[in-house]
């Protein structure tokens, strides 16, 4: 899947708003009320939105755009490391963490002001990514977290 195709998937029908609505609906349900990472899951639409915007920005190097498109394709696929199909919206945890890892990688290569210019979420993007990643291992377990880090870091942990 090309980067442009992945981006079109997210733009079609405003993926950002649909994702936020699904997570909010689940959190309002009986099953979701007790989910202890609810506040972090609600950041998913903001972080995905940021990643799409960065994938379209000319100031982001092509190599990183390609990896960003791959992460966006992963988020769009229904089956992944923690599939939403089987575990419900709590399955968005792996998507959220993979997106946060990619944003952290972009922050290491792209000027911070470029990333901040596209941020539409609450608080600062740096604090948001840090907050999400601090709970990563507890959210998805050590094995899945290690695998995700290798995916983003090119095999290195």
Q: Mind sketching the topology for me?
A:
Blueprint: H1 3-11, H2 15-28, H3 30-33, H4 38-41, H5 44-56, H6 62-76, H7 84-87, H8 92-109, H9 112-118, H10 125-134, H11 136-140, H12 142-153
Helix pairs in contact: 1-6, 2-5, 5-6, 5-8, 6-8, 8-10, 8-12
Give the key terms.
157 residues, mainly alpha, 12 helices, 0% strand, globular
Structure explained in plain terms:
This protein is mainly alpha-helical and 157 residues long. The chain has one domain (3-153). It contains 12 helices and no strands. The longest helix has 18 residues, at 92-109. The protein is globular, with a radius of gyration of 15 Å. The model has no long low-confidence stretch (mean pLDDT 80).
Offer a concise description of the structure.
This protein has helices spanning 3-11, 15-28, 30-33, 38-41, 44-56, 62-76, 84-87, 92-109, 112-118, 125-134, 136-140, 142-153. It is mostly helical and 157 residues long.
DSSP strand content: under 5%
- How many domains make up the coordinates? 1
Task: Please count the helical segments.
Answer: 12
Residue windows where pLDDT falls under 50 for at least 5 positions: none
Largest sheet: none
Would you list the SSEs in sequence order as H and E?
HHHHHHHHHHHH
Work out the helicity level: over 70%
Class by SSE composition:
mainly alpha
According to DSSP, the number of beta strands is 0
Shape descriptor reads: globular
The chain-level mean pLDDT equals 80
Instruction: Give the C-alpha Rg.
Output: 15 Å
Distance between the termini: 26 Å
């Amino acid at each position: 899947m090309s980067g442009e195709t992945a981006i079109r998937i997210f733009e079609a029908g405003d993926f950002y708003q649909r994702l936020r609505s699904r997570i909010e609906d689940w959190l309002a349900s009986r099953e979701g009320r007790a989910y202890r990472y609810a506040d972090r899951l609600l950041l998913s639409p903001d972080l995905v939105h940021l990643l799409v915007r960065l994938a379209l920005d000319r100031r982001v190097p092509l190599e990183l755009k390609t990896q960003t498109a791959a992460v966006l394709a992963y988020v769009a696929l229904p089956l992944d490391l923690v599939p939403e199909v089987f575990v419900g919206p709590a399955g968005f945890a792996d998507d959220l963490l993979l997106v946060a890892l990619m944003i952290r990688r972009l922050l290491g290569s792209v000027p911070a002001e470029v990333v901040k210019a596209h941020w539409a979420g609450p608080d600062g993007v740096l604090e948001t990514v840090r907050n999400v990643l601090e709970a990563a291992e507890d959210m998805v377990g050590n094995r899945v977290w290690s695998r995700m880090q290798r995916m983003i870091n090119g095999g290195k942990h």
